[in-house]
Amino acid sequence: MTNVMNSPLDKTGFPKPTFISANGVELEVYEAGRQNTGKPIVLCHGWPEHAFSWRFQIPALVKAGYHVMVPNQRGFGNSSAPSETTAYDIAQLTGDLVALLDHYGYKKATFIGHDWGANIVWGLALLHPTRVNKVINLALPYQQRGEKPWIELMEEVFGGDHYFVHFNRQLGVADAILDENKAQFLRNLFRKNVPLAPPDPGMLMMNLARAEKPLGEPIMSESELAVFVSAFQTSGFTGGINWYRNLDRNWHLLADANPIIPHPTLMIYGTQDMIPQSESLQEFVPNVEVVSLDCGHWIQQEKPEETNQAILQWLKQQNE
What we know:
Blueprint: E1 17-22, E2 25-32, E3 40-44, H1 57-63, E4 67-72, H2 90-104, E5 109-114, H3 116-127, E6 132-138, H4 150-158, H5 163-169, H6 173-180, H7 182-189, E7 191-192, H8 204-210, E8 217-218, H9 222-235, H10 238-244, H11 247-253, E9 265-270, H12 281-284, E10 288-293, H13 299-302, H14 304-317
Parallel strand pairs: 3-4, 3-5, 5-6, 6-9, 9-10
Antiparallel strand pairs: 1-2, 2-4, 7-8
């Protein structure tokens, strides 16, 4: 693949997608840079996002000599969206990434994940450690496997209205509300300088879908937002919400995995993010370096230059 980006989204340096068959599904993959450079890197988006959320990182990584692969993961964009809820468990989602490497002929790659994408990258390092070279995760630190499944524990601590729990216990309700208010929900969600304590964190996502006056400031232009809106008009929200509906299933699937991640790791936090920083990260990820940027949850879109600098500087320190 030559380093030519000639898609309709040229101004953001975003490539055209290709479609590959992987792990029983079809993935929409945005690829840039030259193959066989020995520097493959895979960028994994979160929820409710899209490969387009990495638009600022792709050109910088290509310039640094990387072969960049950015899939819309199953349930997102024009990738397959199986109807079975269990098709979105951690074994399937990490299996897609392994199949992506197989398709391009790589034994291993560096993986970068944001939000739910970070969760999948952590899971990949646990379930397929030999396929991972290095880990760079944004926003979501490693979540240790405790004595109780995650949703069961969250329900005890936060109650049934917390959106993680609601997604699992009230099937189809949130899906319908978000689908009915796609543009408004995404416009209200992708904000910066948002107060750290929203009025009702429990029903946060449903409230955002209905709110006429969002908090904070937009993190992207209307034309950029339109890419996300168009994607969810195609896919809907159920596939992505099904990632949440497999959290307790994932807890069981990870029962026999070694909980220690030995890979060289960079963890990037946003200091204004609602997600707290982990106090036990180094216990489970001993080779981690931590960077904090002055921003909210949407780190690589809020602070693209600073994010790129942190990633590239760390990779250089790792002799890449």
